[in-house]
Specification:
heterotrimer, A mainly alpha, B mainly alpha, C alpha+beta, B: 2 domains, two-stranded antiparallel sheet, globular, C: alpha+beta, 22% strand, elongated
């Protein structure tokens, strides 16, 4: 067994175990923290694959942004120190069934798909390459989707401002 | 001439001759790990005594002056005291998270060490996303603080953690925009590229006004991000008795304390790399003779000199300015730093496209 | 105009920050005037500010005479009952009884050094001393009698 395989299994184990803990923990804040570790584990797998940019974005967006947002909303809304009530068993059973079905489907797909090994060099994932592809207008460029997404984000930002903006009290 | 990169080369070639590649890698990782931990310990000792001496000098006091010559061994004595002190865990605390949080703070600080160029060709990991990696990892810092604040089961801790979270999340934006200015000028995120681009002059001199504005914004934002006065709302002693580390004692407190100073060192190192040329000696355009003289000073001295200068500036901030209120803090970020930073990045993009910078 | 105000706001803020940093920078570079007192080491040369209040004492002249008439103005002025004056009746030269101070009892442990007794005293008999090393092992030691044994009222003080 090579060193990188060991590292992969360690990262995978960390991701899976903390994901399991996130759904099974009875304390909301702990669940959020375990979810965070799960997300960091995924970022670790990206690093392991040498997709550094994706890994860094994963950390910025999910671990640094969304997890913090979740934790904040827990702080502000829930009685975060108390244990959640136990779920009733039928609900538990159905959710377990749903999870198992999803797992089975994924496994089935993985085993049925024939992965073809390639001798080509790995995809060039440096920031430079990503940037030129992202704004490229040629065959492999993503200029249009990029601009559409940025328009969407701009619209979201303006929407946030409009929602958050307090209308001025009418002066009489 | 001896240099750090030469020493690492010698060690590397000796290891590859003696062992197989896997063992070489493992041994090198161990050496790097031990080196980083050693650097942490030394930096912690130096920065704590520096902070206390600087504060004393700015307040016309003497500062620690009993242990060792001129009190220089004071932080050593403090470390021994913290090591032998009992690390208490409060009864109502969430034990697992409470004991885990200081280590997260420490691990984050260690991860941040990786892409910093300490000297010429002396860098742990020259990752191609360099500064993005730094901003990404440093955003994890807030998790450690939130964990510590929540698991302490203390309202002051929780308040401190919430404040700190809001503060770090918002000031990250301005720090990111200031970093982007240099990224636009260099055209690369890689630390080695950024340093190499400053061979004929540092960005703060070459980048005209935008670089200065970016430097100012960066210094303000990183002061806020490392939770230091005048932005130390998260541990405001007079209101929150110590913020998120109120309940910590002994070595667990020391880890938080150390992580704070290491973070200060790291952000100052990044600031020095981006704006003041990192390990690059002071060069002026084509003055061959002058540049040659400057090259005689070792690159590691350049790097540490600039970094410690910036650390001194941040300490200067701390011992001059009064603490901001939370609304003033958020006003400063969202109404001043962020709009100015955005206009600034527009300006620098124009400069970079027209190639007005040197 | 909004933009002009905004810019002048930022410039003013930067200027004031710079002024503050200049001050501390001046102190940092001119490290001569030190306000730190290295107290137990410099006990011999320690100079306290003039207005420092350590404890209440009664002044006596060389003939062991004080100026306290026992009027209890200080006792009345004291906000927390620090002073207790025990009076006696002296027989003076003309054979008349006259009120005089027997014991001027001063509870240092209750005193807040507020200076009201000194201001109340009509004859300037008491004053604030600058001694400050008051720690003792027993609380009873802090209850002091300020007039010295066998001391008399100074002639001419009414």
């Amino acid at each position: 067994m090579k060193g990188e395989t060991i590292i992969f299994y360690m990262l995978a184990a960390m991701t899976l175990v903390s994901a399991l803990l996130a759904v099974s923990s009875r304390q909301l804040f702990r669940s959020a923290v375990y979810l965070l570790f799960s997300l960091i584990g995924i970022a670790g797998i990206y690093f392991w694959l040498h997709y550094e940019f994706v890994a860094a974005v994963q950390i910025v967006v999910y671990a640094g942004g969304i997890a913090v947002l979740i934790i904040f909303s827990i702080f502000l809304t829930q009685k975060s120190g108390e244990e959640l009530p136990k779920q009733n068993s039928t609900r538990l059973m159905f959710s377990a069934l749903a999870a198992l079905a999803g797992f089975g489907l994924t496994i089935l797909q993985v085993f049925n798909y024939t992965f073809i090994g390639t001798k080509d060099a790995a995809v060039d994932a440096t920031v430079m390459a990503i940037g030129t592809r992202m704004l490229g207008m040629g065959k492999e460029g993503f200029a249009l989707p990029f601009e559409v997404v940025s328009m969407l984000l701009l619209a979201a930002m303006i929407g946030c401002i409009v929602i958050a903006m307090r209308s001025k009290p009418e002066t009489t | 001439m001896w240099s750090l990169s030469k020493i690492t080369d010698i060690i590397h070639s000796w290891l590859t001759e003696t062992f197989n590649p896997t063992w070489t890698l493992i041994i090198e990782m161990v050496i790097v790990g031990v080196g980083v931990i050693g650097l942490f310990a030394v930096l912690g000792l130096i920065l704590v005594i520096m902070e206390r001496k600087v504060s004393a000098y700015m307040q016309i006091r003497l500062g620690p002056n009993r242990v060792g010559p001129k009190g220089m061994m004071q932080s050593m004595a403090d470390t021994v005291k913290l090591l032998v002190k009992e690390g208490m865990t409060p009864d109502g605390a969430d034990k697992f998270l409470f004991n885990f949080a200081p280590f997260i703070a420490m691990i984050v600080a260690m991860l941040l060490m990786a892409p910093i160029a300490f000297a010429k060709d002396f860098q742990i990991w020259d990752i191609n996303i360099g500064v993005l990696y730094i901003t990404a990892i440093s955003s994890l810092n807030v998790i450690a603080i939130l964990m510590a604040g929540w698991s302490s089961n203390n309202k002051y801790s929780l308040l401190g953690a919430m404040r700190s979270g809001a503060q770090i999340v918002s000031y990250e934006l301005s720090a990111g925009l200031a970093i982007l200015v240099i990224v636009v000028l260099t055209g690369s995120l890689q630390i080695s590229d950024i340093v190499a681009a400053q061979a004929n002059g540092w960005w703060i001199f070459k980048g005209w006004l935008p670089a200065w504005i970016a430097f100012l914004i960066f210094m303000i934002a990183v002061t806020a991000e490392t939770n230091r006065a005048p932005f130390d709302l998260s541990e405001a002693e007079s209101e929150l008795t110590g913020g998120f580390h109120t309940e910590y004692s002994g070595m667990k407190f020391a880890l938080f304390f150390l992580a704070e100073y290491i973070n200060v060192f790291i952000v100052c190192g990044i600031g020095a790399t981006l704006f003041l040329g990192g390990w690059m000696p002071f060069h002026i355009g084509n003055w061959e003779g002058f540049n040659h003289v400057m090259d005689y000073i070792p690159s590691s001295i350049w790097f540490f000199g600039k970094t410690f200068f910036l650390i001194f500036v941040i300490m200067w901030f701390r011992w001059t300015f009064p603490r901001l209120r939370i609304d003033q803090l958020l006003n400063l970020e969202w109404k001043y730093l962020l709009p100015i930073g955005m206009v600034n990045i527009l300006l620098v993009t124009v400069i970079a496209i027209l190639k007005w910078h040197f | 105009m909004f933009l002009k105000e905004y810019i002048s706001d930022v410039a003013g803020a930067l200027k004031s920050l710079f002024i503050g940093m200049k001050r501390t920078g001046y102190y940092f570079t001119h490290h001569k005037e030190i306000i730190t007192e290295q107290y137990p080491d410099n006990r011999a040369t320690l100079v306290l500010p003039e207005r420092f209040r350590g404890e209440v004492v009664m002044t006596h002249n060389e003939n062991n005479e004080h100026r306290c008439t026992g009027c209890t103005a200080c006792e009345l002025a004291c906000p927390n009952g620090t002073i207790k004056i025990v009076t006696k009746f002296d027989i003076n030269a003309e054979g008349k009884k006259k009120k005089a101070v027997d014991k001027f009892v001063y509870h240092l442990e209750l005193c807040t050094m507020c200076n009201l007794c000194i201001q109340a005293c009509p004859t300037d008999a008491i004053k604030m001393a600058q001694t400050f090393e008051h720690s003792v092992y027993d609380r009873s030691l802090l209850t002091k009698v300020l007039n010295k044994p066998d001391s008399k009222l100074q002639e001419g003080v009414e």
